[in-house]
Amino acid sequence: MAFNGKKVSVVIPAYNEEKAIAKVVKDFSLSFVNEIVVVDNNCTDRTAEFAKKAGARVVKEHRKGYGFSCRKALSSAKGDIIILVEADGTFDPEDMKKFLSYIEDADMVLGTRTCMQLVEKGANMGSFLGYGNTFVAKLLQLLYGNVRLTDVGCTFRAIRKKSLNKIIRKFKVGGSTFSPEMAIEALKAGLKVVEVPVSYRKRIGVGTITHGSNIKAFILGLEMIWLIFTRKSS
Prior knowledge:
single chain, 234 residues, alpha/beta, Spore Coat Polysaccharide Biosynthesis Protein SpsA, Chain A, seven-stranded mixed β-sheet, 8 helices, 7 strands, 15% strand, globular
């Protein structure tokens, strides 16, 4: 199992996703995937147990936070190409094929959920969140250049291991602004970054970050903007 001779790792940060994790692990176990790694970020339910039974390798991250969980996931992968995805069933495993096609000519491929024909009814992508993600993405594009971005919050992405090694020590975010930080550090390092549209589904279970709350989404957007400006000057 490999993609053009390269091993592929799928890594999944998880916090209390027992309702979805087994399905996600099985769905993403496509023929070209060599390993699936699930990060247990202090889960209090049976996420880790169900992930193992479904065939994933489970690692623990004791520092609480989405960013810490993603960083652990990325650093734990053994593949030449690493695909980061959510544990809640919102993304389509078939879209990994898009990433693999584009990563032949790029260092990192980002998903974007802004193609509304690919957004399922009931998915957490209303007008407020959609326009907000695009606005912040365009701000990042304006300040860092050499890229076209439309969705700063999409966590579905792929990166070459060699490219990741150039930036992983730059990561500082432990919370929910990790997605733009990863893009920022890639662009600062001169990596070639491209964006492709992906499908977006209604999540399985209840979200903990912006799901159902425009106020939380607005606050997170401000935190992302602050990160974009402060990291530019650092």
